[in-house]
Amino acid sequence: MNCLFCRIIEGEIPSAKVYEDEFVFAFRDINPLAPTHVLIVPKTHYDSVLDAPHETIGHMTEAAKLIAKAEGVDEKGFRLVMNTGADAGQTVKHLHMHLLGGRELPM
Ligand code: 5GP
Ligand code: ZN
Fold first, then answer.
1. In a domain, 13, yes or no
2. Whole-number Cα distances in Å, 49 to 1, 41, 57, 71, 73
3. Which residues of the chain fall short of a pLDDT of 70?
4. What is the pTM of this model?
5. Which atom, in ligand 1's list, is nearest to the CA of 93?
6. Which of 58, 55, 49 is nearest to 94 (CA)?
7. How many independent structural domains does the chain possess?
């Protein structure tokens, strides 16, 4: 298996896990851009949001809501981002959602 996030999900590469359920795995970004920076990744490999069924997006978003509450960023606010393709700077070709919070996030 050649995919970095598939290997993290399998535990072949260590990560700081914050949440896991039947459908998703979530861990701290190795290069955090905010005090809370979590990556929420579906256990099934999709290259990007373009390939993923709506159920998968729903599972990721529900996990994000739970993690935002657990991280204590739900009241002040947070941002969910899915970079897609070159112009957006997607570097890992396994669908993931960034959860960013804990500071003001200018556009
Ligand atoms: P993208 O730029 O594709 O939207 O986001 C990929 C993210 O994965 C980046 O924010 C990057 O810091 C993070 N990342 C890359 N390699 C690793 C790793 O080995 N472990 C963790 N925890 N995060 C990683
Ligand atoms: Zn993968």
1. yes
2. 21, 11, 8, 25, 25
3. 1
4. 0.98
5. 3
6. 49
7. 1
